């Protein structure tokens, strides 16, 4: 019991030494329209990759039936 009290006191003592201040700028969390450009090449590549994997899965299912 004494050990637990000492550890708890130590942790509370450390907690009192820690101070923090958090500031937010007015534009925090907002994105301008320029940052949200769509990379069509990347989207097309992802689409084709998914489409090819689906074709492979369909072929595997046909072979197992």
UniProtKB/TrEMBL annotation:
InterPro entries: Adipokinetic_hormone_CS (IPR002047), AKH/RPCH_hormone (IPR010475). PROSITE patterns: AKH (PS00256). Its main location: secreted. GO terms for biological process: neuropeptide signaling pathway. The keyword Signal applies. Residues 1-20 form the signal peptide. The lineage of its organism: Eukaryota, Metazoa, Ecdysozoa, Arthropoda, Hexapoda. GO terms for molecular function: hormone activity. It holds the Pfam family Adipokin_hormo. This is Neuropeptide. Belongs to the AKH/HRTH/RPCH family. Coiled coil: none annotated. Keywords: Amidation, Hormone, Neuropeptide, Pyrrolidone carboxylic acid, Secreted, Signal. It is found in: Secreted. GO terms for cellular component: extracellular region. It comes from the Eukaryota.
């Amino acid at each position: 019991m004494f050990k637990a009290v000492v550890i708890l006191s130590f942790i509370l003592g450390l907690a009192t030494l820690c101070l923090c201040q958090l500031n937010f700028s007015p534009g925090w969390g907002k994105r301008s329209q320029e940052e949200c450009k769509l990379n069509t090449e990347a989207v097309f590549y992802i689409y084709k990759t998914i489409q090819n994997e689906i074709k492979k899965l369909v072929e595997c299912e046909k072979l197992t039936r």
